């Protein structure tokens, strides 16, 4: 499977695994066979080449599409994965997280396989999350303000993915709904606090793709399966 042949636009459910956290072999197998459409290897803090490679080796033999979502250029590892989803954070005053890190990456690596790179326009809405703190995102936004970011992402920057990110907490469905009504071509991702079938279904009504992360570690794989079933 190569990145360019993956139908990532059809994914309804993605599982985000954190290289900084541990899952035993049985849990990894249960995640990989849960029906989730893809596994994203991602975290803001403490992701190293070593723990990323360890996690990738644990998940790679199940035939589930694998994506790395790097938090910095050092984390942009293509080896053994299908695609890289590379974030830009739109609601930060610090341009490093919009294009600065990306410019440093392109400077250091002149031969990036861009056909394997899918840009993501993040709107970060939980100020207490690691990604909120690191990027100093301005999170106090009304639904129409988030929707305006989504329109800029789609119509001005042509990002293929708009990602409403509440990492660690369950978000406001009215915000996700407003974002979904604002865009037509880009895929809308929602992630944050999905830990039940009900929450998966609620956000799945508006988002094209829901992302489940912490619940895998905190609630277990049966809960993950319930979230898959709710959107597929
Ligand atoms: C240019 C390259 C290759 C990378 C830069 C990419 C950028 C701009 C990243 C900034 C946003 C970011 C840190 C994204 C990482 C993905 C993400 C949101 C992971 C979830 O993070 P949390 O759940 O908040 O953090 P922990 O799991 O580490 O607590
Ligand atoms: O860990 P949770 O809260 O499920 O959030 C998922 C994902 O959006 C984090 O980047
Ligand atoms: Mg996390």
UniProtKB/TrEMBL annotation:
One Gene Ontology cellular component: cytoplasm
Keyword list, A-Z: Cytoplasm, Lipid biosynthesis, Lipid metabolism, Magnesium, Metal-binding, Phospholipid biosynthesis, Phospholipid metabolism, Transferase
EC number of this enzyme: 2.5.1.41
Domain of life: Archaea
Localization per Swiss-Prot or TrEMBL: Cytoplasm
Enzyme class: transferase
Coiled coil ranges: none
Gene Ontology biological-process annotations: glycerophospholipid biosynthetic process
Molecular functions (GO terms): heptaprenylglyceryl phosphate synthase activity; magnesium ion binding; phosphoglycerol geranylgeranyltransferase activity
Pathway stated in the Swiss-Prot or TrEMBL entry: Membrane lipid metabolism; glycerophospholipid metabolism
Binding annotation for sn-glycerol 1-phosphate: 16, 163-168, 193, 213-214
Obligatory cofactor(s): Mg(2+)
Enzymatic reactions: sn-glycerol 1-phosphate + (2E,6E,10E)-geranylgeranyl diphosphate = sn-3-O-(geranylgeranyl)glycerol 1-phosphate + diphosphate
Pfam families with a match to the protein in the record: PcrB
Keyword Magnesium: yes
Positions annotated to bind Mg(2+): 18, 44
HAMAP family listed in its UniProt record: GGGP_HepGP_synthase
Family as reported in the entry's similarity comment: Belongs to the GGGP/HepGP synthase family. Group I subfamily.
NCBIfam families: GGGP-family, GGGPS_Afulg, PRK04169.1-3
Function: Prenyltransferase that catalyzes the transfer of the geranylgeranyl moiety of geranylgeranyl diphosphate (GGPP) to the C3 hydroxyl of sn-glycerol-1-phosphate (G1P). This reaction is the first ether-bond-formation step in the biosynthesis of archaeal membrane lipids.
Protein name: Geranylgeranylglyceryl phosphate synthase
Protein species of origin: Methanofollis tationis
Lineage, broadest ranks: Archaea, Methanobacteriati, Methanobacteriota, Stenosarchaea group, Methanomicrobia
